[in-house]
Amino acid sequence: MNMSDLIYDLGLHRGEDTEFYLKKGFRVVAIDANPELCARARETFAPHVADGRLIIVNKAISDQRGTLTFYKNELTEWGTVDPDWARRNERLGKKSEEIEVEAAPFEDIISEFGLPYFIKIDIEGMDMVALRSLKLSAERPKYISIESEKVSFGKLREEFETFRELGYDRFKVVRQDTVRKQRPPSPPREGSYADHAFTFGASGLFGDEAPGEWLTAEQAIEAYKSIFLRYHLVGDEPLLGPNLVRVLNRLRYRAGWYDTHARLAGS
Predict the structure, then answer these.
(1) What is the pLDDT of residue 1?
(2) At the topology level of CATH, where does 3-217+258-264 sit?
(3) Taking the model in full, what pTM does it have?
């Protein structure tokens, strides 16, 4: 059964999103592979852990059980179990430390804690592993968000095809480097009202509160075309030279990064 007061925060990090979900009155299962971040969150949110409204799971989401190498990055939000992502991080000047962490398929998490109302997925290279695992569930959460692909347009199309196979038919494309400008609406459209200021790195509003209109898959894919062009021109590994990139950035032509929010058909 869909548990309407439960949210999964895949990619707990410093608790930027968990804090918001708790303020809105939801229970949260927060998952992160980084043991230091999980330990810090247990201290920060100790009252919520004590009263059972927050469960912190220190595991890497994977397609296998056991242990995995986690590339703990000096830029903590770039920690990953994906070697390709770790190599990209190093190319961009951010080194990683290899540690062993416990891993679990996402279906194990759902079996233990139940199907949530909303799942936020932001786990650096493993978003699609988590998303595809929902095919093993007879029911689906009403809403899901993932950090979308920004290099391969073919992989982006695969994301939308997976969503459609799972029964999601409406989408929002939400820019993430401007989340600090978002403000929770009053009256609320999800949960309780929360007077909250988003910090850099937070995923922001979700569900019917997420900014923008609900789009079809075709409309959302069309919106991503200009986003991909901008990323290739001025993104992490830009086609343009560094001087021109700096000029364009000053003119507010920046790549940014985006989340795709999906809504279950008929909900």
Answers:
(1) 46
(2) Rossmann fold (3.40.50)
(3) 0.92
